[in-house]
Design brief:
The chain is α/β, with parallel strands linked by helices and 482 residues long. Helices cover 20% and strands 30% of the residues. Strand 4 and strand 5 form a beta hairpin. The radius of gyration is 23 Å and the shape is globular. NADPH dihydro-nicotinamide-adenine-dinucleotide phosphate binds next to helix 4. Flavin-adenine dinucleotide binds next to helix 1, strand 3, helix 4 and helix 9. Belongs to the class-I pyridine nucleotide-disulfide oxidoreductase family. PYROXD1 subfamily.
């Protein structure tokens, strides 16, 4: 590091954002260049670290995530300096960044990993909440504890988790699609998991290979002003109580809750000022108006790009993400981006699509660091293998869910056929085929099929001779294709 002036410091590598993408990128750079100082600028006092990483199969990953004070990272990587101060301005041409505390950083290579924030249906309304980081989850928990009815809008990951996890409170679930969970599963899978909403929840979670999330907020240094934190992730709700105000005796709770209603939503109009007994009312396209304590807007995310745009020339994607090429490079020289803030702008493999997920944030952060290093060292680098096949392991309604490739026949139009095997309450297996070759799959329950199906998608074997037998439960498909 060389000091250029009293308040301007110079680094070869600067990473902005202390979530999974930024931390992974900074760690990789710090390991690869032990003699260089790497700086990680972040808005929040806590950073996200990956631990116990395990490559389950060629593309499926398993790891734990911890939210920790930045000092933990600095102890592990002596050449990594974490500075808690949000980036406020970027001058890409001059290769300089300005942070909230007035410091100017000159970089040779920058990686922007500033994540995303909830895309709320209504901005700046105290009764419309988004859930993103530890603080917003705690605010949600606090408000829920005295709530009798909430409206959840959206049909993706957060909504799927909330309608299942919330207890002691009536939940009106407003979706604009014909089936629940459209961002992750199909209508058949939705039918399969819906009975779990009414069923009594198991006391103990089903065993499931997936990412664990822990937070250690109590150990965070108290720095006063806290910027936006990193996104929550798997199991974020397990460490907090998601119980509403109806704290009655257990058998009464069973009778009262959860009265989950799924409504088709084409339009939502919210009356910002209460005229009745509820603080807010949501008018849905079924013509009915529902009063509630608050609305959770679980309606996707918007990339956090603002501090970087003014005065620069970034190509932005339709979803407002920083467009990156196959080296995670943006349209501004020497500026890379990874994780939720970016949008993949390269021609993707036939079995991969971007979804703003924890696993992709880690993969992109790691690969961006590799690309930055390759550029400095004058080496060639090819798109990493992890971008060959989309794979995601998660849990919905307490079922293990594995999504592979074009699991919802994304982009295949009519040119595909589906094979489905379903055993009520046990498993749901759907395979997407095109021209007899596997393009994607949804596996719900303990199917143990993920590795075999991953191979069948990657090797594009002609499966037409097997027809329906492919999903015959009496055939040990794993042995068959190994
Ligand atoms: C409730 C919830 C549940 C989820 N569950 C899952 C799941 O089960 N599985 C899964 O794969 N994914 C899940 N996700 C998605 C996953 O958490 C995100 O895709 C992932 O964490 C994105 O990582 P990131 O590093 O790109 O961004 P973030 O984690 O958002 O980190 C961004 C970082 O940038 C910092 N920052 C912001 N602005 C600035 C600035 N101007 N200057 C400096 N720093 C800045 C922030 O402080 C933060 O540290 C979930 C998300 C939510 C909200
Ligand atoms: N287990 C997991 O893997 C989890 C992952 N996540 C991730 O966290 C992030 C945030 O989650 P979430 O907010 O649920 O986002 P998602 O992108 O998962 O889902 C957003 C949902 O909201 C719908 N929607 C968007 N705009 C509106 C609107 N105006 N009115 C009604 N519905 C609307 C979308 O429908 P349409 O697509 O038709 O626009 C979609 O169904 C995502 O990146 C998600 O992938 C979150 C929780 C769990």
């Amino acid at each position: 590091m060389a000091t250029a002036s009293q308040s301007e410091v110079q680094f070869r590598f600067v990473v902005a954002g202390g979530g999974i993408a930024g931390v992974t990128c900074a760690q990789q750079l710090a390991s690869q260049f032990p003699s260089l100082d790497i700086v990680l600028l972040t808005a929040a006092p806590m950073v996200k670290t990956v631990s116990n990483f395990r490559q389950v199969s060629k593309t499926l990953e398993d790891f734990e995530v911890e939210e920790q004070p930045s000092s933990v990272l600095e102890e592990k990587y002596p050449n990594l300096k974490v500075i808690q101060s949000a980036v406020t301005v970027l001058h890409a041409k001059q290769h300089t960044l300005l942070t909230e505390n007035g410091q100017v950083f000159h970089y040779e290579k920058l990686c922007v990993c500033t994540g995303a924030r909830p895309k709320l249906i209504i901005q700046d309304n105290p009764h419309v909440l988004g859930i993103r980081d530890t603080d917003s989850a705690q605010e949600f928990q606090k408000r829920l504890s005295s709530a009798k009815r909430i409206v959840v809008v959206g049909n993706g990951g957060i909504a799927l988790e909330l309608v299942y996890e919330v207890e002691g409170c009536e939940v009106i679930w407003a979706v604009k699609d014909k089936a629940i969970g459209n961002a992750f599963i199909d209508a058949g899978a939705a039918q399969f998991i819906i009975p779990s909403l009414e069923a009594e929840k198991p006391k103990k979670a089903l065993p499931c290979k997936r990412t664990r999330y822990t937070t250690d907020k109590d150990t965070a240094p108290n720095t006063g002003s806290e910027g936006p934190g990193s996104a929550l992730g798997p199991d974020w709700h397990e460490s907090i109580s998601l119980r509403g105000a109806e704290q009655v005796s257990p058998h009464l709770i069973a009778l009262l809750e959860p009265i989950h209603s799924v409504l088709l939503l084409l339009k939502i109009a919210v009356f910002p000022f209460s005229t009745g007994v509820w603080p807010i009312y949501a008018q849905l396209s079924n013509g009915k108006t529902y009063g509630c304590d608050f609305i959770v807007s679980a309606t996707g995310v918007v990339p956090n790009t603002e501090p970087f745009l003014h005065g620069n020339n970034f190509d932005l994607a339709e979803d407002h993400g920083l467009k990156v090429d196959e080296h995670m490079q943006t349209s501004e020289p020497d500026v890379y981006a990874a994780g939720d803030v970016c949008t993949a702008g390269w021609e993707p493999s036939a079995f991969w699509q971007q979804m703003r997920l924890w696993t992709q944030a880690r993969q992109m952060g790691w690969y961006a660091a590799r690309s930055m290093a390759a550029d400095i060292l004058g080496e060639a680098i090819e798109l990493d293998f992890c971008f060959e096949l989309f794979s995601h392991i998660t849990k919905f309604f307490n079922y293990k869910v594995v999504l592979l490739g074009k699991f919802n026949a994304q982009g295949l139009g009519q040119d595909h056929e589906l094979l489905v095997r379903c055993t009520k309450g046990l498993e749901y297996v759907k395979v997407v085929l095109r021209g007899g070759r596997m393009m994607g799959a949804i596996l719900i329950g303990e199917t143990d099929l993920e590795e075999t199906f991953e191979n069948l998608i990657l090797n594009q074997m002609d499966l037409s001779p097997y027809g329906q037998e492919l999903l015959n439960p009496n055939i040990d498909i794993e042995d068959y294709f190994d």
